[in-house]
Amino acid sequence: MVDFYQKLPKIELHAHLNGSLSNRALEELRELKYGTDRTKEGDDGFYKILNGQLLSLEECFQKFRYAHDLTDRRESLELATKRVVEEFARDNVVYLELRTTPKSTANMSKREYLITVLDVLRKVPEYQPSILVKLLPSIDRSKGVLEGEENVTLAIELAALYPGMIVGLDLSGNPFGTKFDDFVPSLRRARDHGFRLALHCGEFDDEQEVKEMFELGVDRIGHGTFITDIEFRSNAA
Ligand SMILES: [Zn+2]
């Protein structure tokens, strides 16, 4: 059965770059940054979490923190992007929308971050012709409105340099303590520049927020856990 699903051509519309890294890829990135000596960096639980069968929610978040730490420079981000595309292609995904929040680290700016990812994706037709990959830069709600604005500006600028590769804007991140309404002007600006909107919607129980998202218009709904049937029917109509 697994074999059947693997061979079936698929589209993947909800892939976060860091969240799609396989254990093998994480291990490779870890070695790239810290070398092969597993004792050198002390036991911070990396291999324990990697080998864990059932991870708690806290351990899952810890795994994302490792992924962020391991992709904080161009070389490793490049490798991470390549591995994610290769692995989706191996699973016979023929169309992939990849999301990622541009991050500024000690080693690269947000702009360099996105350019690194885009440069890898631009070469995909040469080395992985079976898969078509598009990028959705993300706005991380927990980082605030100004950072979101910055990401939209970057997406607009880079869309001109990488035609046809950036198809939308994603809104994600921890929603608690943030107001969707605050991000609407940035999202509208993105849409005015031709980007589709992929919103993480209904991740917690907030009817009003779901309503506001539908009012703005959403092209891809992320997760949608708390969207009720009634909300969906009345808003999608
Ligand atoms: Zn998501």
Folded structure, characterized:
With 237 residues, the protein is α/β, with parallel strands linked by helices. Helices cover 51% and strands 16% of the residues. It is built from eleven helices and six strands. A six-stranded parallel β-sheet has the order 1-2-3-4-5-6. The longest helix is centred in the middle third of the chain and has 17 residues, at 74-90. Zinc ion is lined by residues 14, 16, 172, 200, 222-223.
Question: What is the secondary structure topology, with strand pairs?
Answer:
Layout: H1 2-7, E1 10-16, H2 23-34, H3 46-51, H4 57-70, H5 74-90, E2 93-100, H6 110-122, H7 124-127, E3 132-140, H8 145-161, E4 168-172, H9 180-192, E5 196-201, H10 207-216, E6 220-223, H11 229-236
Parallel strand pairs: 1-2, 2-3, 3-4, 4-5, 5-6
Helix pairs in contact: 2-5, 5-6, 8-9, 9-10
Helix content: 40-55%
Query: Strand pairing plus helix content: what structural class?
Result: alpha/beta
Distinct ligands: zinc ion
Order of helices and strands: HEHHHHEHHEHEHEHEH
Strand order of the largest sheet: 1-2-3-4-5-6
**What is the average per-residue confidence, as pLDDT, rounded to a whole number?**
91
> What is the CA-CA span between the terminal residues?
37 Å
CATH topology: TIM Barrel
Would you count the extended β strands for me?
6
CATH architecture grouping: Alpha-Beta Barrel
User: Could you tell me the radius of gyration in angstroms?
Assistant: 18 Å
- What's the CATH C level? Alpha Beta
Largest sheet geometry = 6 strands, parallel
